[in-house]
Amino acid sequence: MDILIDNKSGTPIYDQIYTQIKAQIIGGALQEHEMLPSIRGLAKDLRISFITTKRAYDELEKEGFLYTLPGKGCYVAPKNVELLREETFKKIEFHIEQIAQLASCCHLSRQDVLEMVEFGLEDSK
Hints:
Blueprint (H helix, E strand, L loop, with lengths): L12 H15 L11 H8 L3 H13 L3 E4 L3 E4 L4 H25 L4 H14 L2
Antiparallel strand pairs: 1-2
Helix pairs in contact: 1-3, 2-3
């Protein structure tokens, strides 16, 4: 499992860990029931406080991406199809908001934007 911490980023370290592990789970780099590094082990490898690592793991567990077996460690939870679907919807909504802002700046009509989306959908078939 690869985690890169950017100390110059304005993003909190626990959030960087959370985001990267979540992306690896969604992307399939981390498989269901795969054991993750221990909280203390990951903290030591990243040279950060174990409390920071624990917070990232706790957030991932709260959202259903991890499960913990007391005394044994943290593991990747089976993928929840609805959860992944919701994540995808969030990404699409984010991109649509960006498209709407760009279209507004360029004074594009609703029809222009819809035609562009339809063209993009045709290319992806």
